[in-house]
Amino acid sequence: MSRLRDVPLSALDLATVTTATNARTALQQTRELAQHVERFGFTRFWLAEHHNMPGIASSSPAILIGHVADATTTLRVGSGGVMLPNHPPLVVAEQFGTLSALHPGRIDLGIGRAPGTDQRTAQALRRTTGPLSVDDFPQQLSELTGYFDGTEELNAMPAEGNKPDVFLLGSSGYSAQVAGLLGLPFAFAHHFSAENTLPALALYRERFRPSERLAKPYALVCASVVVADTDEQARRIAGPGALAWVKLRSGRPGPLATDQEAADYPYTDVERLIYEDRIASQIIGSPKTVEAQLERLLEDTRADELMVTTMVAEQSARLRSYELLAELAGRSTVQGSSERVKTEV
């Protein structure tokens, strides 16, 4: 039995800016990618939130979601995610209520608790120097969902009656517990926290309590995947993404390098170790190589849905990677599905 052919397949995009492109091109390519995966029957297309990152144009998920939803017809489009500490819950409810009213049944609200940026930028976003405590997030989340449910004193027009599907995002056990206790679908960031995946998912399922939103646990796992015609080609086009990780870890984020720039980069011994570790944490290779690794991941995690993110420099290589992945998953060029998460027991 092929798990890859049985689970919904979705995509996460960051609107990557390269040394050869600019933000405008990156946003156009995000729209093109969404249309591309829709043709292959992908279920969701999520946009990340990052700030003060020269290589990432996805800083305003709500605006990008509207842009992508307007350019597609069947994809569920959402945030992967909105970093709630950066935003007043009332504003998020109004934004996503508006999106849901404009695109009924097609909007997802993935919520994260990390700022998605450095401390100085986080302070600029919040206009305060005081950090949020770990206890603030559950209260913020409760307030946000309350606007959609109509249980808050304020009316976040048009949120009430126009609910997106709400997911809690996480990379650790804390978010897993919160998602389980609140009865929310849980999206785990395997693409940068692989060592925590299995413990977090186990904790989520252990702590899960049925809710009005969800009757049983629903775990989405997001993996970093690069597929090409050969293992060698896949490793080469994965190079810019791994170099971006090296630079991020050393406090020097920048635009994504080209394939040749990544190949020619003068890595120090320490940088080479970080680079190889990043390559090893991803699923990279030919269709045969990737299929085996994805099947293993799905078996180990028992994921209800697979989401992939592909950080490569060339748009043609990115489109080809998703096309090969769709073929592995048995998706031909068909219309996608905007079906909601199943909540039946």
TrEMBL record:
Coiled-coil regions listed: none
GO cellular component: cytosol
The organism's place on the tree of life at top rank: Bacteria
Domain Luciferase-like: 15-304
InterPro entries noted in UniProt: Bact_Lucif_Oxidored, CmoO-like, Luciferase-like_dom, Luciferase-like_sf
Single GO term (MF): oxidoreductase activity, acting on paired donors, with incorporation or reduction of molecular oxygen
NCBIfam families: oxido_grp_1
Similarity remark: To bacterial alkanal monooxygenase alpha and beta chains.
PANTHER family assigned to the protein according to its UniProt record, in alphabetical order: LUCIFERASE-LIKE MONOOXYGENASE (PTHR30137)
Protein name as annotated: Luciferase family oxidoreductase group 1
